[in-house]
Amino acid sequence: MSSIFIDACYGRKVPRTPIWMMRQAGRYLPEYRALRIDHRMLELCRNPALVAEVTWQPLRRFPLDAAILFSDITVPFLALEIGFEIAPGVGPVVETPLRSAPQVAALSIDEMQGKLDFVAQAISLLKSELKVPLIGFAGAPFTLATYLVEGKPSRDYKTVRKMIYSEPHLWAALMEKLTDVTLSHLRIQAAAGVDALQVFDSWVGVLPAATYAAAVLPYMSRLWKGLSGLDIPLIHFGVGTWHLFPQIQSFKPHVVGVDSTVSIRAAAAGPLRDTVIQGNLDPACMFASQDVIAASVRSVLEEARGIRGHIFNLGHGVLPETPIDAVSQVVDLVHKGLD
Ligand code: 1CP
Q1: How far apart are CA 142 and CA 171, in angstroms?
Q2: Region label for 28, one of left (φ > 0), alpha (ψ between -120 and 50) or beta (otherwise)
Q3: What is the pTM of this model?
Q4: CB proximity list for 34: less than 8 A, separation 6 or greater
Q5: Comparing C-alpha atoms, which of 119, 251, 134, 242 is closest to residue 185?
Q6: Would you call 187 a catalytic residue per the annotation?
Q7: Which end of the chain has a smaller Cβ tally under 10 Å, C or N?
Q8: Is 147 annotated as catalytic?
């Protein structure tokens, strides 16, 4: 498949900037909300035909340059037999938060592949029909740990941060297991035929650089080494990670996704000079007038003008209730490019 998205991931010259949006499937689409009336979120994720349908929904409306598999970073918890649900309007909620050595020791990562067969089936269905690349994804070990240890979405990740400093052996044991979980989750998707993989370390930006170096980087380096045999581009994404860019660049992702607070130009001239950059329109701007949206898109494109490689995206996911016309306008503007 020839694709400007894949070419851009490898830093090859492309005729225009490719675009896709994190959370391009989801609650801002009425056809998604309609499906959710009869199906819980995890039920959608486990049903290959419904996964394919939801993945397709944004592509029927907008000429996006890539699709992203509809799933969630917590889906491997199903294979680990961790009791959890995805609570509407909240996010992942774990029945018994994981905070002790016996709980970590009891996590069984055997036979993940068999238990996540529905993921591979959904990918096969999609690959037979999609005309654009399909991005698979997984949560990075730290971000998975935030849900398992805190037990629910958090603002400050206090329990996790306390564990890192006070119980380094427990933390290391948990990260070892979760690195294997992330590796399996990604390998299953690669074997089923996805064209690129994105690793979401969404919340790791809360850690100081020295803590990341000691408590996260060794596992991310092992993860990236474990993926090096795959012949597809690998994307890293995290929020608020400017201070971590040198360490993130050290394991050599093909692409680094950046949030809306990052100056793409400054990152490309400094700590991300060796990678392609993905981002970073503020998703909130899509609630404004057409003029404001146009100026905001232009500003991202101008920041990225002349850098090694750029994939247009938002700084984080599409917000629920984003006007559909705004999404459409952004895609069209990026396709037209700067004059
Ligand atoms: O319908 C609903 O109520 C469910 C809302 C929802 C959706 C649509 C959740 C719960 N997850 C998803 C899908 C999802 N999750 C995708 C779909 C593919 C796409 O179109 O992009 C992806 C890529 C994810 C990945 C994900 N899940 C991340 C990483 C991306 C990010 O936003 O940083 C994270 C952190 C999660 C956890 C999660 N799952 C759901 C929510 C609301 C959350 C975040 C909770 C929190 O704030 O901590």
Answers
A1: 10
A2: alpha
A3: 0.97
A4: none
A5: 119
A6: no
A7: C
A8: yes
> Residue 2: pLDDT above 90?
no
Residue with CA at minimum distance from ligand 1 atom 46: 153
pLDDT at 1 over 80: no
Residues 6+ apart with CB under 8 A from 38: none
- Atom 3 (ligand 1): residue with closest C-alpha? 88
What local confidence, expressed as pLDDT, does residue 339 receive?
79
Residue whose C-alpha is closest to residue 287's, from 318, 243, 255, 332: 318
**Catalytic residue among 7, 16, 36, 298, which?**
36
The three-state secondary structure class of 228 is coil
Tell me if 132 sits within 8 A of 192, measured CB to CB.
no
Closest CA to 47 of 21, 18, 78: 78
Parallel, antiparallel or unpaired: strands 310-314 and 276-281: parallel
Cα distances from 118 to residues 50, 114, 144, in angstroms, run 11, 9, 20
Structure-token match 């020791």, residue found: 105
- Residue pair 219/199 in contact by the 8 Å Cβ criterion: no
Is any atom of ligand 1 closer than 6 Å to the C-beta of 22?
yes
Nearest to 212, CA basis, from 237, 191, 188, 241? 241
What's the average model confidence in pLDDT over 314-334? Answer: 98
Give the separation between CA 303 and CA 19, rounded to whole angstroms: 15
